[in-house]
Design a protein that fits this description.
The complex is a heterodimer of chains A (152) and B (719).
Chain A (H helix, E strand, L loop, with lengths): L1 E6 L2 E6 L6 H8 L18 E4 L2 E4 L12 E3 L7 H12 L9 H14 L5 H8 L9 H15 L1
Parallel strand pairs in A: 1-5
Antiparallel strand pairs in A: 1-2, 3-4, 3-5
Helix pairs in contact in A: 2-3, 2-5, 3-4
Chain B lengths: L6 H14 L23 E4 L2 E3 L5 E5 L8 H13 L6 E5 L4 H4 L15 H28 L6 E4 L2 E4 L5 E3 H8 L47 E6 L7 E6 L1 H4 L4 E7 L2 E6 L2 H10 L1 E5 L8 H11 L5 E6 L2 H7 L2 E9 L11 E7 L2 E6 L4 H12 L6 E5 L15 H13 L5 E4 L2 H6 L7 E9 L5 E11 L8 H4 E2 L2 E2 H4 L11 E9 L13 H18 L4 H8 L4 H13 L10 E10 L2 E12 L3 E12 L6 H20 L5 E2 L2 E2 L17 E6 L14 H16 L13
Parallel strand pairs in B: 3-4, 8-18, 16-17, 20-23, 26-29
Antiparallel strand pairs in B: 1-2, 2-3, 5-6, 6-7, 8-11, 9-12, 10-11, 13-23, 14-19, 15-16, 15-18, 19-20, 21-22, 24-25, 25-26, 27-28
Helix pairs in contact in B: 1-4, 2-4, 4-5, 10-11, 15-19, 18-19
Classes of the chains: A alpha+beta (152), B alpha+beta (719).
Bound molecules: FE2/S2 (inorganic) cluster (FES) (2 copies).
């Protein structure tokens, strides 16, 4: 059956079984590959996207949950928080292999949208669901703070 | 990872090949469709590594896999510096699989990445390539402008004739340069002339903050099918029978195919293939399956450690001097299996076509993968075209001499037989259970001190599986029964101890094992550096001073140790409940010391608060990348230090995903400070050497805080 939602500002209608995770609809049906697959169990955060502005793990979110809602992926992240986060990520050369970073950036942008000046604890809470096997964590923490400052 | 050739041998390749660089190697033009745009016909290609196109883009062909370690940036730095190019005009492209042009000079006629050799083996090769390109551009300008070459200067990608004020970009001179003879000899810059080497410049592996970077997982080709493979739950089991009905009952499942390693289910998308695979019923033949469990294996290793093993190093007379010691200490260490758990689970795209085979992969040993795939499909290795894509990390996993997951993808494509591209994807669970782990090890170390606290004897015994046995590297790296990767870090112990022996018991079972970022040093670094700390305490000496004395004649070890200690305020007082620990270790030709600070909270828990790291890796080509690799290496090493462990039960892996194979998360990451020792030595790698030092530094810090010595990884305090 077909499910309608808005993806990065564009209306989409997808034919997929309702239980298909949003991740695979985005990646395999709509061929938008910036959102990554890491665990499929909401354990790593690589698949993080925004559903009506909130960070969610798309690997465990059935596409049916996105029905008539707004989905934003890394490709469509252009809110001012999103831009500040990306800029800070570039300035501090955060990425290594990069595979986790779409998810990291989506989590960080959602954090800043909810909380303009996060404390270390806030950053821990919002970002510890995102694994980085290259362990770029030191720079992620710095970059979140730098992005917050740039928006202040 | 691959440390296939030791330095003396590698230097030979190094010199041999640098002599031929610039002798007019022309690349067979190759452009992976997914990565590169169209290339102008009159581009200037002085050698296999550099291409200058009329639009003024300088493309550097990168022969190594970019897996996060920064090789795109590092290799491009070498070329750009010698060319005096503008950093902005540099674009990197993954080189094709072709060992005749893109071999790792330390591996012989073999293309591959590993052993932290990327920058080291390329240091002169790519500077030569850049210098040759520049020299031809300068000659072209001189000829065009009818002036002597000496009057041409180059800055930031601009050629300039000083007298007339004429200028041209590299792009404008590309066509003319391509008609110049390739110089036989070029003079390389001396260090004070470097413009990019040693500076912080933006990375060249771009597209990683906007979702545009392409990994294997992201390949979409016309008519492509996604395959998931049902693997045997126990190592060594094979398919007895299967019934495809239940899988085929899932709408969208197109094929169910038996392959040597299991049963593949194919569909147009991952989710459908996964549902099909999960529904599939397979009966496994477990007659010759592995039966071992981690606990029994460790018990077996422990018993073996009571007997002498095969000697790996023997200085003086360890037994006799031990008998004369005033004080003898002994300790045993346990290390579990470890999964690489790369962020991108293993995957590979294979298409069999009329010309041979095309592969899309984060390929780390291209030459080995070419051979392995050619054997599956029945073509020549040169007919296997590999598109090397960014890898969502590797940590050694992709450098597999059996090319395991690449072969599996090729088997699926072959069984399919339609010529359609197949993207084989492992779920996290598939990846976690597939093996090729860092082996489990047991160590026993015994040492004797004389009455002045001087170490007079050291006996180190290692028990564990061989990584290299049965691989293409065996001949070179397993000598006199000693797999060098089992004992590295122990056999080259730098401490001045007159009587020293290292021996090895190599065990055998069916669990596939592999190098894991920093290889042997991941365990030898821990046992040697915590034991030496124990000896310092027994000798009543400060752990840093004790090491400094024993490191006489090893100035680079001493240099990093001293620097890390100084920067960490070693010796200053530290509050109750906190502890400070130090460790120093050399791996892959680089020297690293770390001082860790921990806090022991109640209930046997601890946090790692801060790590001060000093590194000596020769000429620091990209200081910021060196720092990033130290930070990343420390974080990567903290996972096995604190939480990671693979265990077996009855020949099957107990863990499946990140809930039971835990890894360090942001809230567990310490503050890190990295200091680089200035050096003019040939640059050595930084991908691995930061890893092995953190576990002993943390264990020593825990001892400093609590008085409790820990001998087993991951480190668990008694409650
Ligand atoms: S892939 Fe969704 S959390 Fe890991
Ligand atoms: S950058 Fe490699 S996993 Fe995060």
């Amino acid at each position: 059956m077909s499910i309608n939602f808005k993806l990065n500002g564009v209306d989409q209608s997808v034919d997929a079984t309702e239980d298909t995770p949003l991740l695979w609809v985005i990646r395999d049906h709509l061929k938008l590959t910036g959102t990554k697959f890491g665990c499929g169990m909401a354990l790593c955060g690589a698949c993080t996207v925004h559903l009506d502005g909130q960070a969610i793990r798309s690997c465990v979110t059935p596409v049916a949950a996105a029905k008539d809602k707004t989905v934003t992926t890394i490709e469509g992240l252009n809110s001012k928080q999103g831009q500040a986060v990306k800029q800070a990520w570039e300035d501090l050369a955060v990425v290594q292999c990069g595979y986790c970073q779409s998810g990291q950036i989506m989590s960080a942008a959602a954090l800043l949208s909810n909380n303009a000046s996060p404390s270390d604890d806030d950053i821990n809470t919002a970002m510890s669901g995102n694994i980085c096997r290259c362990s770029t964590y030191v720079r992620i923490r710095k970059a979140v703070k730098q992005a917050a400052e740039s928006l202040a | 990872m691959v440390k296939a050739m030791k330095f003396d041998q590698s230097r030979r390749y190094f010199l041999k090949s640098t002599a031929v660089v610039g002798a007019g190697l022309t690349v067979g033009v190759y452009y992976p469709d997914v990565l590169a745009g169209q290339v102008e016909a009159n581009a200037f290609e002085p050698n296999a590594f550099v291409r200058v196109s009329p639009d003024n883009i300088v493309t550097v062909m990168i022969k190594h896999l970019e897996m996060g370690q920064g090789t795109y940036t590092g290799l491009a730095t070498l070329v750009a510096d010698e060319m005096d190019a503008s950093w902005d005009q540099i674009v990197c492209e993954g080189a094709p699989a072709d060992a005749s042009k893109y071999n790792n000079l330390f591996f012989g006629p073999f293309q591959g990445t590993g052993g932290s050799t990327g920058l080291a083996n390329s240091f002169e090769q790519l500077r030569n390539a850049g210098a040759a390109a520049k020299s031809m551009l300068v000659s072209a300008a001189a000829e065009t402008w009818q002036v002597p070459v000496e009057e041409i200067s180059v800055e930031s990608g601009m050629l300039k004739h000083n007298g007339s004020g004429k200028t041209a970009t590299f792009g404008e001179m590309a066509d003319a340069a391509s008609k110049q003879p390739v110089p036989q000899n070029v003079t390389l810059k001396s260090p004070e002339e470097f413009i990019y080497i040693g500076k912080t410049i933006p990375r060249k592996d771009i597209g990683k903050t906007d979702g545009t970077a392409v990994y294997t997982q992201d390949i979409n080709l016309p008519n492509m099918l996604t395959a998931l493979v049902a693997h045997a739950p126990r190592f060594g089991a094979t398919v007895k029978s299967f019934s495809e009905q239940s899988a085929k009952a899932i709408p969208g499942v197109e094929h169910v195919l038996q392959i040597p390693t299991g049963v593949a289910v194919l569909a147009k998308d991952y989710w459908t293939a996964k549902k099909g695979r999960d529904a599939l019923q397979v009966e496994w033949d477990e007659d010759s399956a592995e039966t071992a469990g981690s606990a029994q294996l460790m018990q077996q290793y422990r018993e073996l450690a009571n007997q002498p093993g095969t000697p790996a190093r023997n200085d003086g007379d360890t037994q006799a001097s031990m008998a004369q010691a005033a004080q003898v200490l002994e300790a045993s260490y346990e290390f579990p299996y470890l999964a690489h758990a790369t962020m991108e689970p293993m995957n590979c795209v294979v298409q069999i076509n009329e010309d041979g085979v095309e592969v899309w992969n984060g390929a780390q040993l291209q030459t080995g993968d070419q051979y392995a795939v050619s054997a599956v499909v029945g073509v020549n290795p040169e007919q296997v075209k590999i598109n090397t894509l960014f890898a969502g990390s590797s940590f050694g996993r992709r450098a597999n001499s059996h090319s395991d997951y690449v072969v599996e993808a090729a088997q699926v494509a072959k069984a399919l037989g339609t010529g359609q591209p197949v993207k084989m994807v492992w779920s996290r669970e598939d990846d976690m259970k597939a093996g090729y782990f860092r082996p489990m090890y047991f160590h026993k170390i015994k040492a004797g001190l004389d009455d002045k606290g001087k170490v007079i004897a050291w006996q180190h015994r290692v028990v564990g599986q061989s990584i290299l046995k049965g691989t293409a590297f065996e001949e070179m790296m397993v000598q006199n029964g000693i797999d060098a990767t089992s004992v590295e870090g122990a056999t080259n112990l730098p401490y001045a101890i007159p009587n020293l022996s290292v021996d090895l018991h190599t065990t055998v079972n069916q669990v596939p094992v592999l190098w894991w970022r920093a290889v042997g040093s991941t365990h030898t670094g821990f046992s040697t550096e915590t034991f030496i700390d124990e000896l310092a305490v027994a000798a009543n000496k400060d752990p840093v001073e004790f090491r400094m004395e024993l490191l006489e004649g090893h100035p680079r070890h001493q240099g990093v140790l001293k620097l890390a200690a100084e920067k960490a305020g070693w010796g200053s007082s530290i509050p109750e409940g906190k502890g400070r620990g130090v460790a120093v270790h050399e791996s892959f030709g680089s020297f690293v010391a770390q001082v860790a600070e921990v806090t022991v909270t109640e209930a046997g828990k601890y946090t790692v608060d801060k790590v001060v790291c000093a590194v000596d890796c020769g000429v620091p080509v990209n200081p910021d990348i060196i720092k990033a690799q130290m930070e990343g290496g420390i974080g990567f090493g903290l996972s096995p230090t604190m939480v990671s462990e693979i265990t077996l039960e009855n020949g099957a892996v107990s863990q499946s995903n990140f809930h039971d194979y835990q890894v360090i998360r942001l809230n567990q990451m310490p503050e890190i400070e990295v200091h680089i020792v200035p050096s003019t030595e040939i640059p050595t790698g930084v991908g691995e050497p930061g890893v092995p030092v953190i576990a002993p530094a943390v264990a020593n810090a825990i001892f400093n805080a609590t008085g409790e010595r820990l001998y087993k990884l991951p480190l668990q305090l008694s409650a």
